[in-house]
Amino acid sequence: MFNLESTLISDELKFFPFICYVFLPHRVYLLRGNHESKYCTSVYGFEKEVLIKYGDKGKHVYRKCLGCFEGLPLATIIAGNVYTAHGGLFRSIPATPSKRSKKKNRRISLTPEINPFSLGSLEELSKARRSVLDPPWEGQNLIPGDVLWSDPSMSPGLSPNTERGIGLLWGPDCTEEFLKKFNLKLIIRSHEGPDAREKRPGFAGMDEGYTIDHTVETGKLITLFSAPDYPQFQATVERYNNKGAYVVLKPPEFNNPEFHSFEAILPRPKVQAYYDYEEVIDSDEELDLASMVTTPSDIIVST
Ligand SMILES: [Mn+2]
């Protein structure tokens, strides 16, 4: 199992699993990551690279890629034991209140101690509308954004992921609740490379390509990061030189991962960035939410 981050074509590692998936659709399972969106592919150079490399067919190719991204599954359960997703856990979305109760809720929401978040169920996840070019951070369809953008925390409970502007932070208690409730043993997610981990005190670094984040009664939470020497483009000469990793899960339980770390080939082959990485924020943090709004005109352009 690999868990990658970059969406640049230049990063061929990303496209290798995709090619495998195209040729062996019943053998290879590919999950969606937060970079498989209109917003991230436009900010981090993928769109520009496609438009330049494919010339007058560029727009068509880019639209087809977005169509693939939109159709990718959000999560999998392996052998009934292992939950895998790019970001992680997700909230429960209560049914839309009627106009009358909405008014009532507004009054209630003044009480600060009420926690509006509770963990979502696998049934809610399976019913979520995943066909969105950019998972919304507001409104009713919040599960896709949570699954793709959330991060674990060492503090208990569920809270908004203010650093990213979308998704949640979940504590070890949520990991335990989720594993126990759905009779699972292991959560494997990605989404945090060495640069993101540097800003997360309490968590291990990503030097080896994986970390064990929560060890709870029922099982474990693991972060698996398969992009070595990440990020690909940096304004500074100094690099993280992190290893990437993949895991092998073996029958019958599939819940005791065998970790394999690997190094990047150095020096990296020379490739173009197709975005201004000295200006654009380092990782995929602090979303520019305003530019992420998919307006009806965007949809027309992109279909
Ligand atoms: Mn990510």
From TrEMBL:
Assigned EC number: 3.1.3.16
Pfam families (UniProt xref): Metallophos (PF00149)
The reaction(s) this protein catalyses: O-phospho-L-threonyl-[protein] + H2O = L-threonyl-[protein] + phosphate
EC main group: hydrolase
Record GO terms (molecular function): metal ion binding; protein serine/threonine phosphatase activity
InterPro entries, per database record: Calcineurin-like_PHP, Metallo-depent_PP-like, PPP_phosphatase, Ser/Thr-sp_prot-phosphatase
Cofactor field: Mn(2+)
Keywords, sorted A to Z: Hydrolase, Manganese, Metal-binding
Name this polypeptide is given: Serine/threonine-protein phosphatase
